[in-house]
Description:
heterodimer, A: mainly alpha, two-stranded antiparallel ribbon, 2 strands, 76% helix, 2% strand, B: alpha/beta, Rossmann fold, five-stranded parallel beta sheet, four-stranded parallel beta sheet, 13 helices, 14 strands
Amino acid sequence: MRFGGAGRLAEFLQFFFSGLTVGAIYALVAIGFTLIYSSSDVINFAQGEFVMLGGMVTFFLAAAGVPLPAAAVLAIAIAVLVGLAMHRFAIEPARGASAVTLIIITIGASILLRGLAALVFDKNFHSLPPLLGSEPWMVGGAAVLPQSLVVLIGAGFVVASLWTFLTKSLWGKAVIATAANRLAARLVGIDTARVVGLSFAVSAAIGAFGGILITPIALTSYDVGTLLALKGFAAAMLGGIGHPLGAVVGGLVLGLLESFSAGYLSSSYKDAVAFVVILVLLFVRPQGLFGGRGVERV
Amino acid sequence: MSAFKHVTVAVFALVITGAHPAAAQIKIGSVLSVTGPASFLGDPEKKTLEMYVEAINAKGGVNGQKLQAVIYDDGGDPNNARTFMQRLIEEDKVAFLLAGTTTAATMPMIALAEEAQIPLINFAGAVQAVFPVKRWIFKTPHTDLMACEKIFADLKKRNLAKVGLMSGTDAFGKSMRDQCLTVNKKYGIEILHEETYGPRDSDMTPQLTNIKGKPGLQAVITTGFGQGPAVVTRNYRQLGITVPHYHGHGIGNKQFIDLATPAAAEGVRLPAAALLVAEKLPDSDPQKKVVLDYKKTYEGKTGQPVSTFGGHAYDGLMILTEAIARAKSTDKAKVREEIEKTKGFIGTGGVVNMSPTDHLGLDLSAFRLLEIRNGDWALVD
C-alpha cells in the first residue's frame, strides 16, 4: 500500500472483481431457470442438481481416465438424459396439475437427485482444473482469476445461443408460442408436451455446462446444488424471471452486492444485505429489472 | 427360483437375528451424522465402529460377551439425533452410548443420556460437550480451545503477535473463534482485525483484502471445516498475502490440500492429531504403533484415506470396552466409574488421562503442529 488513494482503488477493484466472479456463477445458474419457466410456468428447483451433475460427472469421468473435454460433453449428455427422464416420469404424468404442484414435484426430484448423487459418487468436495491456469492476473493492484472471465464468457455464450434458438429456430418459436398460450399453441399443431420436454433437456444442458465452468472456482459436491439454486433463483427473480439477459444482470448485481457489502460493511451480514436490497427492489418493481419486456415480447 | 429362495432365507435369517439378539450381548447404541453436511465426519466414524466391533467379536468379545452395535444416522440434524437417542434408550434399551458427530447434534443427546444415566462417549469437537463436567458424559476429540492454544503457542515462539482472524459462520468455525478470543491475551496475541465467511461461499477475497490492508499484520488464523477453508487458502494466495497462515484442526484430511491446491496450501500450519503423520512419527513416540495399526486397518478395509474423525470413534470404542473389561460387568454405574479412571490410554487422539474433573483427558501434547510442504503434512518441532 503505497498511499491511501491507490490502496483504496485497489481495494475497490478487488471487491468489484470478486463480485463479478461470484455474480457470473449466479448468472450461469440463473439462466437455467428461465427456459423451463417460459415454457411451462414452472420454477424448476432441481436446476441446481443439473449444475451439480455437470461438475460431478465431469470430475468422476476425468478421474476414471476420460479426457477432460470428452468428460465434459458426456456430463452434459447425462444431464440432458436426466432432464428428459425427469420430465417424462415426474412432470408429464402430472401435466393437469397446477404450477405450484409441479414446483413441489421439482423439489422432490431435486432431493432424489441429490440422494442418488451421494450414493453413485461420494460425499466429498471435488474440483476441476481451471481452463486458463490458476495464476491470477493483476489489474490495478487487484487480483482477478482467469476462470472468472471464462465463466462470464460462458454466460454470454449461453445467453446468445438461447436468444438465437428462441427467435430463429422453429422449435424455439414453438417454445415461445407454448409460453404465450398453451391451448392456442396446441390448436395450431404444436406438440406442447414435447416442447416442455425440450425445455427441460435444454435447461439441463445449460445447468451442466455452467456446473463444469464454475467448479474450478466454487468446487462441487453432491449437495452443492441447493445453495446455488437458491442464489440463482434470487438472481433470476431480480432480473425478471423468464428473461435470459435479466438472469445474467440479476446474477451480476447479486454478486456485486454481496461482495461490496462484505468488503465495506460487514462480512457477517453480506447475505442479509443482498437479500434486503432484492426485497426492496421487488417491492418497487415486482416484475424484476427486465420483467416488463417479457410481457411485451408476447 | 433357487436363487430367490436363498435370498428369502437370508432375509429371514437377518430378521430373526435382528429381532432376537443372543442373550449375552452387550448393546452399544450410536447416533452419527453418516449423511448430510457432516458426513465426512460421521461416515468414517460409522465404518470404524462397525469394523472394530466385528474385530472384537472375532476375538471372543469383551468378558466373553459379544458386542452388538445399533447405529442410526441423524443426517446432521439435531432433531433427528434427539429422536434416535430416545429410541436407543427406550426401545433398543442399549447399555452404553457412543454417539454424536457434530456439536449441534450432540448437545440434545447429552441431556437425554444424562437423564437416563447411561454412559455416553461423544465425538463432538466443541469444548462444551464435556465442560462443565457431567457425570455420565465423556468425549474423545480434541477441543477447539486446545487448537487455539496450540496455534498461539507457535505464534509466540515465532514472535508473531498481531493476527487477523477469519472465521467460518458455521457452528464449528464460530465456536473456535469464541474459544480463541478467551485465551489470546494469555499468549500476548492481539487480534488486529476480524472477518467472517459463509462455509459455502465461493469467493472470500473481499474479507481477505480487508485483513491484508491492516498495517502491522503478522499472521492470519482461519477457523472452520469443509470446503470453506480451502477457498480461503486459494484466495489467500491469489491476493499474494505473504504472512504465515494458520488453520484450525478441522482441515485435517488430505482432501483439503487437493481442494486448496498444493501450491496455495504450501506453508499453511495447523494443529492436528498424530494420526495424520503416522509414518513420520519418531519410533520413540508412544502413539506410533496405535495410529499405524488403525491407519492400516482402516485403509485396508475401506480403501479410503484415514481421517482423524474415524480415529475419535476408535478411541471411544476402545476406552469403553477396556472399561467394561476392567469393571468385569456391564453395570452402567460401574463402567462409568471405570471410564472415569482411564489412565495412560494410548489412542489415535493422544494419551488419555481422565479424572472426575476431566472427562476428555487430553492435554496440549495430544496435538501436533503440522505444516503443509509439497502437498503433504510435515511435523513442525
